[in-house]
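Lab notebook, bench 4. The sequencing result for the construct came back, and we need a structural model before the next group meeting so we can plan mutations. Quick request posted to the team channel:

Model the 3D structure of this chain.
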Amino acid sequence: MKNMFKINLQNKKLAINGGRPIRKKRWSNNVTTDNKELEIIKKVIKTGNLSLFEGSHKPDYPFSFGGGPFVKNLEKEWSKFYRIRNSVSMNSATSCLFASIGALEIGYGDEVIVSPFTMTACALAPLIYGAIPIFADVEENTGCIDPKSFQEKITKRTKAIIIVHQFGFPADMRKILSIAKKNNIKIIEDCAQAHAAKYMDKYVGTIGDIGVFSLNVNKAIQTGEGGICVTNSDKIAYRLKLIRNHGEAVVEKARYKNIINIAGFNYRMTEITAAIGLSQLKKLNLLNKKRIELIRYFVKKLPKLDFIKPMSGREKKNKLNGNKSTYYIFPLIFDKTKTNISRKSFVKTANAEGAAFYEAYVKPLYLQPLYQKKILFKKGYPFSAKENRKIKTNYFKNSCPVAEKLHFNKIVLNEHIRFPHKKKDIDDLINIINKIIKCK
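Done. Here's the predicted structure in token form:
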């Protein structure tokens, strides 16, 4: 075929055929902690208070509705860093997503537009409150929701959209905001993979109604598990706090009248987790800087090939618009029409050399059994609820063709282009690719 880059995978120099691999050293886990975390944990231990939350409306210290001093300090510093009015910590970003749906008073008869190309919690969050997720397709160059597809999926029932800033790429928030405002649709930004990423000089998460950040072990900064919601709305922030901490037991004494969705859970963060978060937040800019430097180094050294290229993100098109990606996982696009080998063969061959690439990301969510069978709770609820019976779902093959194309055919990922790795580690990846392409 014309313009096809041919590779001989039978070459005996390749490790997959018994040759010597480029790299034998194991890739490091996402280690972001050091003695600073140890010291701040000691401070918590010395207080003897591992949590100071209480499921009643007590604003006073030591036990309170809002938690202890480390929790409150983390929320204060998070708000300061992100230039946002309110931050509400929780025990995971999944809890944050669930609480966000509840705080926005979404439920039976409502639709929430979500990405199919992300972690399951985004689509599960509406279902927990009885609302139905509708899937919008994504952009091929970012993996973020395509504004055009978002607009096409809107109905009179659409109450919110959950935007995922995929892989640390900011979504096209200008277009999304415009569409959402015209249709009175709330915006939840999932920033789990996009700590300190920016869109037009604004931190992602601070643009919509609620932003959600993850402090899971794999993220840019971490507390093991944990999450934080941000919002400029005092009303929404208070509802998030009610849902976080047994709200049903609080509303009477708090004289809070709007109890819709205020069945409170225990989404509370511990003092130790918050203390680690405080230490990690101070490292965020440095860790992002190191990650971005390694990504740029990799891209610069990557051979110019038609069959495998980096995802372009948004900066490439608009270098002066204040967009900043923070690269949670670095995505490459594999084009099988430009070479004689398959994506699977390329990944298998590269990994035999020590690369640690992997194919695909997540199977489009609507193809999972939950959506194919439309069963979450007994008797098919919430899909079978009378308020939801007229909702037309799009849980079928080719519903979101770009997301399917990325997952099944195109995307190749690497999660190790980050601290504590150095440029010499990235050189191994480049040398592996060079070794493969020289096998003609």
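DSSP finds 13 helices and 13 strands in the chain.
Will bring this to the meeting.
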